[in-house]
Amino acid sequence: MSPIVDYERRAKAKMMHKLWLRIADALDVLLLTLPFALCWFFFYEKNILMPFNGRGDLVVVLLFALLYIIFCNIYKGFSISLMRISELLYSQALAALMADAVLYIVICILAQWLPAVWPILLALAAQFVLAVLWCLCAKKIYFAKNNPLRTVVIWDHEDRVNELVNARGIRNRFEITASVHISACAEDPASVLTGTEALFLCGVHSHDRNQIVKYCIDSGIRVYVIPRVGDAIMSGARPLHMFHLPMMMLERYNPTPEYLFIKRAFDIVLSGAALIALSPLMLVVALLIRRDGGTVFYRQRRLTKDRREFDVLKFRSMRMDAEKDGVARLSTGGSDDRITPVGRVIRACRIDELPQLINILRGDMSIVGPRPERPEIAEQYERELPEFALRLQAKAGLTGYAQVYGKYNTTPYDKLLFDLQYLARPSLGEDLRIIFATVKILFMPESTEGVGTGQITAMDDADVVMLPETSEKVIQQMRS
Fold this sequence. Notes:
By secondary structure, the protein is of the alpha/beta class. It contains 16 helices and 10 strands. The chain is globular.
């Protein structure tokens, strides 16, 4: 088969694949909108103060569908090929819950009273059942119609590849036909990539990577690149034209004044409202902690923008003598005997973080931003990864990219990449998306998974080979 014919065949297959996914997504939206529509027409529509005509009723139903699509995209509820059925179902159920909650508030405003909640709960139960049926059928049909992509992994650091293949579980979607070092194909990509449908590039330097990427684009091969620090910074480059030449401009984190003003106003309003709404829960938690003895709050020195230090507030979840040896260390999770019984519960649900709303109100933190590190731990990370200090370009946040898409024990290098991707393109829309995405991880155990037993920080010896931009001098210092 000639390269042109093969490329056209692949392009047609990709188009049909996208079309099938769009049809499946549309069916999902219709199925989960149906219970809400029935709930609206048979109960709530008759109870609002000024009933709509047909068009107004249709607008309400379409509003639910739009909100469900938005939340499903935030929670990755349409990612049939990349998520397990349990993850897909959790995402769709959460999206339906959020859409139902918003529409119930709208209904309360339209009715000017609190209508019965059982119809919307009944609709939610029906949506859950339909989501289960859709997930099972969509997964079965998808993998019956689509074989795993023939995939090659090209790497510069083998340990990074082992983590990708084994820990990330990519074998569910990709059939790995070869895993080779960059030296085996840098000069002749075709020798390895002929017949390949997808490629993962892990820690490959820019020169070699660019040659391979050009070949893949020309051949219609899908490329997944694990970025380096420079790539994450470049993602924020602003295209412009100067001297009759195309250019890309990079600078330090420099958001617009109106963005900072609105972001600060949003922080004040949301943190203040949350403190008022959650004050009963916070009072109960404070009483439970106090009953165990010791202080309710735990103050810890942290770093924020431009290395300014502040005291972060948290509900105390560990014993009073948790760091009696004076060594700053991360939690090892469920095996950490320093965590109190009450602490295990509040850490699992992130309730221990609620006092940081006071930090936000005072201006020490923002709702969205890089999570603040302890000065001692940041210093350790920066000795091994000097670029880690680039996270301190913006005010620290209660939640952020690394918290939504990573875990408590995400390696410093990956945490840096997450945060640099956020800093590259600051926007209110992105902040809102991260806030809503945070809801999804609140009850996911892996999001609070601790570091390994015996580790002090999220950096261990294996991370030496996982930092592709670390100099040989630093590597030798780490090993010694």
